[in-house]
Write a structure and sequence with these properties.
By secondary structure, the protein is mainly α. The chain has nine helices and two strands; from the N terminus they run αββαααααααα.
């Protein structure tokens, strides 16, 4: 896909908004080093309005800027934040522009859920660890919490498909994109903590494996409500104010 001048401009605006709003709204709350993140709705909207590459690139640049302000570890940001954000919002923008019928919907959700579940649960179950002072939860409890999140996501997709079919593709794209992004963050943050930990570093000690599904649930749960609840009205308002956005297609 060829970049146009207006695409570059939108990437810059998306990145700036994402970095600034993200830092202002994270409230300093983290779980496993991952922040509370309502700002996820910003690149989701850009990915729908201006194309998946624009939203994904803006998110990747924006999260890197925010991470440098927040924790200042470029390697952690490039490995976990940049990759997860690019993947998540590219998928959201890409799937949102597709017309999903029932067959495509079931296939897409089933395949995405299987990949995510296997990726998250395998290391947790193969390398089990009991709860520590991190959360007080056991491996079984965090795995159960993960499975509940998957089930609730299915219910949300089914409900939207039935009552708000216009937003079916956006919802599916958002759930799958946020899930893949959350999975990348959970796995990479855990792996990073195993290698780069020190008394003066971002991770004072390696994170236990049971925290992988917990980081996934935390990341997903602090992003998807804002993407699903705020995204549609913002997108509708933008289309109403600027009707030509409906014809914005990446070359």
């Amino acid at each position: 896909m060829r970049m146009r001048a207006q695409d570059v401009a939108m990437i810059g605006i998306c990145a700036a908004l994402y970095a600034v709003v993200g830092r202002l709204t994270d409230l300093g709350i983290t779980v496993g080093g991952v922040a509370f993140w309502p700002a996820a709705v910003i690149p989701a909207v850009f990915a729908v309005l201006f194309g998946p590459l624009t939203g994904a690139t803006g998110a990747a640049i924006g999260i890197f800027i925010r991470d440098m302000i927040f924790h200042g570890d470029p390697l952690l940001s490039l490995s976990a934040g940049v990759t997860s954000n690019f993947a998540a919002f590219f998928i959201i923008g890409y799937v949102s522009r597709k017309h999903l019928n029932s067959k495509k919907l079931i296939t897409t959700v089933a395949l995405g859920s299987t990949i995510i579940a296997v990726g998250i649960l395998l290391p947790t179950l193969l390398l089990p660890s009991e709860s520590t002072g991190f959360t007080g939860l056991t491996t079984f409890e965090t795995v159960t919490l993960f499975m509940v999140t998957v089930v609730v996501s299915f219910i949300v997709i089914i409900a939207v498909s039935k009552f708000w079919p216009k937003w079916r593709s956006y919802t599916v794209g958002s759930v799958i994109g946020a899930s893949i992004g959350s999975g990348i963050i959970a796995l990479v943050v855990w792996a990073y903590s195993q290698i780069f930990f020190s008394a003066s570093g971002y991770f004072a000690e390696p994170l236990p494996t049971f925290i992988i599904p917990l980081i996934f649930v935390w990341t997903f749960a602090t992003e998807i409500p804002f993407i699903l609840l705020l995204g549609p009205p913002i997108i509708k308002a933008c289309y109403k104010a600027f009707p030509t956005l409906k014809n914005w297609v990446e070359p």
